[in-house]
From TrEMBL:
Gene3D superfamilies: 1.10.1660.10. GO terms for molecular function: DNA binding; DNA-binding transcription factor activity. The chain crosses the membrane at residues 138-159, 165-188. This is MerR family transcriptional regulator. The keyword DNA-binding applies. Keywords: DNA-binding, Membrane, Transmembrane, Transmembrane helix. It comes from the Bacteria. InterPro entries: DNA-bd_dom_put_sf (IPR009061), MerR-type_HTH_dom (IPR000551), MerR_fam (IPR047057). Pfam families: MerR_1. Residues 3-72 form the HTH merR-type domain.
Length: 245
């Protein structure tokens, strides 16, 4: 069995000599031998005990509790339970960190799109992110209803071309007009726009929105508050989303 002086043990365990001396005074880690000249000698068992002390200390356990655990006949069982608990805590921390990371990434993706919107507090950012989620749901709803409509139209058209029966296509067109009108109104009712000039949330007329120049995120509209015409940022129509001018 190997033997170590206080300095050698401290070096192996990567702790200070003062730490070992403190553990000695607290009777937490006593040397296996004390020579006549007062020199303290530790063995491999002492080294393993020190590693256990440092592990438990890293788990946030007090030195008094560590001493009681090490003296318990069920020390291994207790240690296993402590490690399981620490594992759960770390997993929860990782999950929380991943959630925060996703929030940061979402904010980074959307920041260029919301740069025209005045942000005064962290609550404003949270409202913006929540608003973006609601807006995506509106777009998703449009897609989910639009795809079956396209399938119905094209299917009935091919049926008419190859079978020479055109009444299904006529019925499909009527249905398409009705559903498209309903979807367009649904889109209008759930969307609003933020003016980049005065930061007001506006709701222009149905006609202006439908015929305005637009891209995926904005429409060129005349602000109902400041009167300026510009590309306004599309948002979900939640009147609590931003402050009115």
């Amino acid at each position: 069995m190997s033997e170590y002086t206080t300095g050698e043990l401290a070096k192996i365990a990567e702790v200070s000599v003062r730490t070992l001396q403190y553990y000695d005074r607290k009777e937490l880690l006593k040397p296996s031998q004390v020579l006549d000249n007062g020199k303290r000698i530790y063995d491999d068992n002492d080294l393993q005990r020190l590693k256990m002390i440092l592990l438990l200390k890293a788990l946030g356990i007090s030195l008094k509790a560590i001493a009681e655990i090490l003296e318990s006949p069920n020390s291994v069982t207790i240690l296993n339970l402590l490690l399981e608990q620490r594992q759960k805590e770390l997993k929860a921390t990782i999950k929380d960190s991943k959630s925060k990371l996703k929030t940061v990434e979402d904010l980074q993706r959307n920041l260029p799109q919301i740069s025209q919107i005045q942000i005064e507090t962290i609550d404003d950012i949270e409202k913006i992110m929540d608003n973006k989620k609601k807006l995506r749901k509106v777009h998703l709803m449009m897609i989910l209803y639009g795809i079956p409509l396209d399938i119905l139209e094209w299917g009935s058209l091919f049926w008419g071309v190859f079978k020479g029966v055109w009444w299904p296509f006529i019925v499909a067109i009527v249905i398409a007009i009705i559903v498209a009108s309903a979807l367009t109104y649904f889109y209008y009712k759930n969307n609003a726009y933020i003016c980049p000039n005065c930061n007001s949330q506006i709701k222009p007329s149905f006609k202006e929105i439908i015929f305005a120049k637009h891209n995926l995120k904005t429409r060129k509209l005349t602000c109902l508050v400041c009167g300026k015409k510009d590309y306004c940022v599309e948002v979900y129509d939640d009147r609590n989303f931003s402050k009115q001018a």
